[in-house]
Amino acid sequence: MKPAFNPLSRRQFLLGAGGTALALPLLPSLLPREARAATEAAASAERFFVHTTTWHGVFQSQFFGPLLDQAPAATQSYGGITIRQAQLAAAAKASGDLTVISDILRAKSSKLTARMVSRMNVINGLDFAVSGGHNRGGTLGGDATSPTIDQVLAGASSFYPTAVLQPAIVRNLVSLSKSGTATVQTTPTAESNVKLFDRLFKNAAGGGGGSTPAPADKTVLVDRVKEHADLVMADASCSADCKARLGNYLDLLNEVEGKLAQTPVSSTFQRPTSDTSSLESAAGFYGQPASQAQVESLWNDIVVAAFSAGISRVYVNGATSYTFGPEPEHAWHNDYAHALDDPAKRAGFNAAVQLQFETCMLDMAAKMDQVKTADGKTLFDKALIASGFELGSGGNPGHHHNRCIPIIALGDAGGYFKTGQSLDYRDLNSFNWSSDPHWYSGLLYTQWMGMVLRAMGVSTSDVNTTAWGYPNVRGANGDHTDAIWSVAGQDLPWMKA
Hints:
Elements: E1 4-6, E2 11-15, E3 21-23, H1 36-44, E4 48-54, H2 60-63, E5 74-78, E6 81-87, E7 93-95, E8 98-100, E9 106-108, H3 114-118, E10 120-124, E11 126-127, H4 149-155, E12 169-170, E13 176-179, E14 182-185, H5 193-202, H6 221-224, H7 226-234, H8 240-260, H9 276-281, H10 289-309, E15 314-317, H11 329-338, H12 343-368, E16 383-389, E17 407-410, E18 421-424, E19 443-444, H13 445-455, H14 482-486
Parallel strand pairs: 4-15, 4-16, 10-18, 11-19, 12-15
Antiparallel strand pairs: 1-2, 2-3, 5-6, 6-18, 7-8, 8-9, 10-17, 13-14, 16-17
């Protein structure tokens, strides 16, 4: 018996008790013959986008470390300034069980592997076009009139040729949606990983939503469709590869549901599931970075399951209620945005942002790399997993500026990006503040945003990024010359494969 097939969405489903329809990863051997070629081609072209926002600013030395003084492998004059490129692996050093690039860019070698370093770009010298200040959307290209790129992707027919249940999974205040001629904060998709799971999986019929199951319904999702799954596995036309993919997917959902049903970490919290809400409500949570990292991992589990099933291909996040350190948000801001000259506070910041890098970004990359798609690639092979800071990097005063937004990019988006590089787009002869260390201006962040949209396959008919990137708006010169603006619609140097 074959899975149910929706010819409009080109998705397959297992059907089960209570009208349950579980969306599946693509199983080509079980597709209707007349739909197979087009469905496989569409699935092969799919791209995935994940973005993490890190709040506040940072010293260049903390984030980039020895990359600042690394001998360039290549230089060129571009946009009227001299820019530099080097190989990231040359700066990555082993230190015990760690791979270390800088104070922040470090992780256990089992996570920051040589392969992961080769799939990583670290970018310096991209500026917001205007002074950012505190914002909720700048790292995704949003401003007062332009939505963030997650919402651009969600609405682009070139990215989503057919409708999906959740075009963009938005977590916390990182996204801006269009409202008339202005933008408004995008409403987060769900308050916790359990609510996200319920929204995306519990009653997902035919790719659409449905009411949340009653609390009394304890039947796990995979059990509801087990009979149909067994029949699909027994179908003579089900290839070994499709059997393995279906089995791995059901195992993934079983693992996710098992985590949702565990006992809460705090016995005083009455909810009978240990979702992220229960973790955040536990006594002392905001002083426990390890628990905060666990929250990220639990969210990543649900997102990867949604990506696997074709329910969504976009996830944007940025923890706002905790900091990956022992301090709450306001103390974090006062300590790290205004007092980084204090070595103890600087060390605390390093540890917190390093934890976000390792347990949010690298965890997501590793989990996506474990899920194989129908064309033999993994989700990570087709993905860009990126991060950006709310504010710029440099010396004092206070990091409340728009210059040199630190960026990590993991993955090549299906071969669009050349990876394994340290890219330094700073103009070392430009404006600099009279502080030690100095900070500079460089190329435009809009150029990066435009390149990301093109890497995701967004066409110019959906969004034109070929003049000034995204937003495709020519700003005032400020620290950026006509020559810098003139290249903003191009792919960034050395990054296009």
